[in-house]
Specification:
Blueprint: H1 8-29, H2 31-37, H3 47-53, H4 59-64, E1 70-73, H5 82-98, E2 102-105, E3 108-109, E4 117-120, E5 123-126, E6 128-129, H6 141-146, E7 173-174, H7 175-181, E8 186-188, H8 196-200, H9 206-218, E9 224-227, H10 249-252, H11 256-259, H12 265-273, H13 275-278, H14 286-291, E10 303-311, H15 316-325, H16 356-366, H17 370-383, E11 390-395, H18 399-412, E12 417-420, H19 428-431, H20 434-444, E13 445-450, H21 455-466, E14 474-476
Parallel strand pairs: 1-2, 1-9, 2-7, 8-9, 10-11, 10-13, 11-12, 13-14
Antiparallel strand pairs: 3-6, 4-5
Length: about 475
């Protein structure tokens, strides 16, 4: 090797410097993978997020004020998928906001037994994840990564962000802060308000239940209210699968709970890291991936030409069979009357039995085959007012099956790009909240084809409607 006038020591120093220029940035970029390798591959605990949740900027002021009212739903959903937990959180936050009370938020809890990790299908997952690892916020990226002191500005109203101008509702607080300032809350049992008619009579609109709870909360003088932990949910899971739930839309559509919904920096960083999967020909420089710097992109606008598909596989097959046997309806927010894709619930089945014809219909719309998926995609593309140029498939399907689907879609149409959840490159922390990345992308898709029985699809559709996307941009198998 030519020395170009360098001494042997100088040459060795130059080679070392060049090596470090590549090794150190790569180590920094893959720092979570390195840390995971040396910590026996244990799931992350998100300590930084949890720590910052406990010291939000408005806490000092709220500690001294006597006019701030709180609502802590200690009976909130847990031990379930994020879609089901999210819809419960949305309703609890909407109730708190409408009552003029601070929404008290808690972790996303898979296992409430106090453990750090839980075995799920042979793999360890975090037993609980701080809500700010999923939902909205913005912080100084450089200071955060350097672990120095910083001012953390939260955007999402669900996790302590500022309310919109003119909205005097108190900002959300964490459960631990509530416990600190509310040592003697008024405990309310759900049965004090919800009678059997409100729970089980399908003619009773959810808005009526909601209004009864507003009356109850407004009658309580104590600024600290806690819903009894042992009570059933205020809005029970079957209500979300009935059209009666749509009556709540008049309250939800303009609420900051939906209009100011935002995903966490961790999720936005995962989007930037994988932007080329959602935006064909997008160039992500190494510096941008390293620093997490932003792109010249409005993250609330639709991604031009993107068709997002929500395709559930795996154990969802048995769930679809169960839905068919009980003649179950779609999730409520998948049933807006403006939608062109509708579902007519069969009347000749239910209570564990149905006809072969009904079951075939359920499976086609709940667990479609590759041929059925391709047929629907081509139909939607033809009917779309906006040109659809590329596809992102949100799926838990096995890689060989997903590749077969991608090939079939590619053979059926001239697409610029077809990618799926299986193509994502995420960090160790992002891995356990990656469903929120799918939701962010689906929320911004030009058109979404979703699963009518899925709470994930339903939540995305709700956000799309709240942000003014055309109703016919929401399609279903």
């Amino acid at each position: 090797m030519p020395s170009y006038g360098l001494t042997k020591r100088g040459t060795r120093f130059l080679l070392l410097a060049i090596t470090l220029c590549f090794v150190l940035p790569a180590t920094f970029y893959y720092r979570e993978a390195v840390r995971t390798y040396f910590t026996d591959h244990l799931p992350p605990l998100y300590e930084d997020y949890r720590e910052r949740e406990q010291s939000l900027s408005h806490y000092r002021d709220y500690e001294t004020r006597k006019d701030v009212k709180y609502l802590w739903s200690a009976n909130h959903a847990h031990s379930s998928g994020w879609g089901n937990v999210m819809q419960d959180y949305v309703m609890n936050a909407l109730l708190a906001h409408s009552a003029g009370r601070s929404f008290v938020f808690d972790d996303y809890i898979w296992n409430p037994d106090g453990s750090l990790f839980t075995d799920y299908n042979g793999h360890l997952i975090p037993s609980r994840i701080p809500l700010t690892a999923l939902l909205g916020g913005k912080y100084n990226m450089i200071n955060f990564r350097a672990h120095t002191s910083l001012t953390w500005t939260v955007l999402g109203v669900m996790v302590g962000g500022e309310m919109p101008p003119g909205d005097t509702t108190p900002r959300a607080v964490s459960k631990s802060f509530f416990n600190k300032v509310c040592p003697n809350p008024t405990i309310v049992r759900v049965s004090e308000v919800n009678d059997d008619r409100m729970r089980f009579d399908e003619s009773v609109p959810t808005s009526y239940v909601f209004e009864k709870w507003l009356e109850k909360l407004n009658s309580i003088e104590n600024p600290c209210v806690e819903i009894d932990q042992k009570s059933e949910p205020i809005f029970e899971y079957w209500i979300f699968g009935h059209e009666r739930m749509l009556s709540i839309w008049k309250y939800l559509k303009d609420s900051p709970v939906s209009t100011h919904w935002d995903w966490s920096p961790l999720i936005h960083n995962a989007y930037r890291r994988n932007r080329h999967i959602f935006v064909p020909n997008a160039v992500t420089t190494f510096f941008q991936m390293l620093t997490g710097s932003t792109f010249p992109e409005n993250y609330t606008n639709p991604i031009p030409g993107l068709l997002a598909l929500h395709v559930r596989r795996g154990d969802f097959q048995n769930h679809c069979v169960h839905l068919g046997k009980w003649s179950s309806n779609w999730n409520a927010f998948n049933m807006f009357p403006e939608f062109s894709d509708r579902f007519q619930r069969p009347t000749d089945g239910g209570w564990g039995e149905t006809s072969e014809k009904n079951m075939q219909m359920y499976m086609q719309r709940c667990f479609p085959t590759i041929d059925q998926i391709v047929e629907k995609v081509m139909q939607v593309r033809l009917e779309s007012e906006k040109p659809l140029t590329h596809i992102y498939i949100m799926t838990n399907g096995a890689v060989p099956w997903v590749e077969e689907l991608k090939e079939a879609l590619g053979n059926a149409g001239n697409w610029d790009q077809i990618k799926s959840s299986r193509d994502l490159n995420v960090t160790w922390e992002q891995k356990f909240v990656v469903q929120s990345l799918d939701m962010l992308v689906a929320q911004r898709a030009e058109v979404l084809i979703g699963n009518g029985w899925s709470s994930l699809t339903s939540n995305v559709v709700m956000l799309r409607m709240a942000h003014g996307l055309p109703p016919d941009s929401n399609r279903f198998w």
